[in-house]
């Protein structure tokens, strides 16, 4: 602001929203406090051998008690928004039925604290912490209905102050990773037909929740979701490979985002699954394809594709072994994915408004002798991703905001506390938060509204 126009400066448009993201089970702790019921992640993390060194979210960042301090961190960064999630079993300890007023009050207080500091809450209703009391978890169709009831209840309660809601976070992580691969809660390895049914219950839960939120909140309330749509980058930017990346985006996301956006399962997906295809009941797709006000995408890393003559029309290109990786080996560094993630989904489905609901990386952060955490690899990662996002914005793609994952180091699921994604370092013994160099960098990015 105030500086002369500079055509080489990657300036974001006025009103672009900068934020940080977190999730309830990863930061809150207070697992048994205030009447919270257990989630599948409490059960899973307490099962020997499931997480890194048996780490659990029992205490995590203790944000259940320290949320005011976390809002101060946000305030200091200068973010306009904060994406957080709510623990379903803090509100309904048994997933349905009896409400836990202490849990409702907790989230109401967090929202008030954010608003008092001029930070707009974007709330995810479900970031994988399924109430353990719900029989059969996502194998049971009733869980989708229970989710919609929870959504109706809490959005009605907080809807006077919270205007932006996301239903679910990343279908594939609570369906496939939980019920097919077994790497996430509840740690099952079911056959394909059952996995497909779990996936269907996931997207049904989203759809029923959208309807429930619309019915229970004032008009003007914005409803979306946060989805880790698999990202496909064309190997080079020519027409045929760009088209191949679009085809890959449709098929690669067939059980999830594609189904939501197109109101049915793709034929190619149904053919491929054959007798294992999900059982769909009448009315399911009416709910599942409920119009959304925005789509959120979580983007970390892509696949590269080229056009070919196969039925699907593309082939995935294996990464060279020399492709650079970040501290989590699944994050292969390819920052153009943030541009292609946006372009592919908007071109395919004419999405009216899009947010990057997560983007970030782990880093082998250490406190150096000067007491600082100089995470220059994280800054490199973020700067490059935001440069490519700037291209999408400049080309007119409707990107409204960006949420950095994450505000602070936290419980990184099966990796426990061994992977740090925060721009604030957390000493898990003392709960002391220390801004990393990347926090200073992000603060400056926000202040300048430009990538520097
Ligand atoms: C997101 O998941 C989540 O929304 C967030 O909660 C999480 O903290 C963040 O990203 C960072 O991981 O170890 O090779 O088997 C991203 C999806 C799914 C990516 C599980 C890593 C494990 C890959 N994640 N996956 S591997």
Automatic annotation (TrEMBL):
Residues 38-58 are annotated as: Disordered. The keyword Isomerase does not apply. Gene3D superfamilies: Glycosidases (3.20.20.80). The keyword tRNA processing does not apply. The active site is at residues 170, 358. Substrate binds at residues 26, 127, 169, 300, 405, 412-413. It catalyses: Hydrolysis of terminal, non-reducing beta-D-glucosyl residues with release of beta-D-glucose. One of its GO terms (biological process) is cellulose catabolic process. SUPFAM superfamilies: (Trans)glycosidases. GO terms for molecular function: beta-glucosidase activity. Its EC number is 3.2.1.21. One of its GO terms (cellular component) is cytosol. Keywords: Carbohydrate metabolism, Cellulose degradation, Glycosidase, Hydrolase, Polysaccharide degradation, Signal. Belongs to the glycosyl hydrolase 1 family. This is Beta-glucosidase. It comes from Occallatibacter riparius.
